Here is the input.
Amino acid sequence: MESCVQTDIGAAYLERPEAELLPRIAARKAELADRLLVLCHHYQQETTYRFADATGDSLKLARIAAAAHDRRFIVFCGVHFMAESADILTSDDQIVILPDLRAGCPMSDMAGHAQVATAWAELATVINAERMVPVTYVNSSAAIKALVGDKGGSVCTSSNAERVLTWALNQGERVFFFPDEHLGRNSAAALGIPDQEVLLWRRSLPLGGNTTEQLRRAKVLLWDGYCTVHMQFQAAHVAAWRQREPAIKIIVHPECRREVVAAADYYGSTETIIKTVAAAPAGSKWAVGTEINLVHRLKMQHPDKEIHSLSPFQCLCSTMYRIKPAYLLWVLDHLANGRVVNQIRVPASVAAAARLALDRMLSI
Ligand code: SF4
Here is the structure.
């Protein structure tokens, strides 16, 4: 994450009760009216989510921002890489704001630009790196998207990872996939790529912990990043639910481990999970393997269905829903007073290369 020093917003915000903050946010939104667009990722908490003009997953929100030419200020209630994608896709006169700069993504941070560039150079000593195509999950920094764009690769999302992987394998001999091992592994498995042709690149080890021979045979190399939330789900949770509720349906996100996805009835992106549960018949029972705020919202929206979290324990991601009402109000107060705080600005050269990688995905 490039920018993470968050100004102390002080007791005037942090020590005020929500009962006071929420009406003040509503009033500022009304005041800023058509100049403002508030975007909220599905994982945000309800007290922030209620102020969204649009909700969605990261790419859907970036596209909404790009299409909202008339909105000068885009306040992005999500994490840093999402705000970066919005800045890359919006025009120069639009301003993207992340209300709390500490809202990073641990998975995205697991693939730093220097680390990836070093790994690429190391690989080039044992294989023909010219024939290797990089693919990065949208959950990555603008710098990684730019590196991928420069090397002829593409961004992917959890909805289109299999399609992008197929495209990339048609462009070269092998793919280097960043930063989420599990999305890469699940996508490779769905395409029928044998396990022995899918290798993990461990950041701390020479040649990623692989032999030269293994690397030469590999079709897909996986960076060893992961989502702290989706890693908590285990195949044992799936088995326990099936034993307790034989009729239950299990749906999980492809950032979950391979064995969890293989044991589930369905898997897919956040949007797919929402649509699948919404379309299910009344009375159906679901165990959902994804972030807990989304599971709670599904429960509230579908009282006719029985919806549970797949895991009885919650390992929360401390950054994913960091945008608290106090921070949202703080940035709106500044905007109403003619000042911009917490703008996310991707340097032009990085944005241009990152956009190449995003545009490739859109054309695949
Ligand atoms: S839950 Fe946390 S680690 Fe997982 S994608 Fe979101 S910010 Fe990244």
Notes: The chain has three domains: 11-103+319-346, 108-227, 230-309.
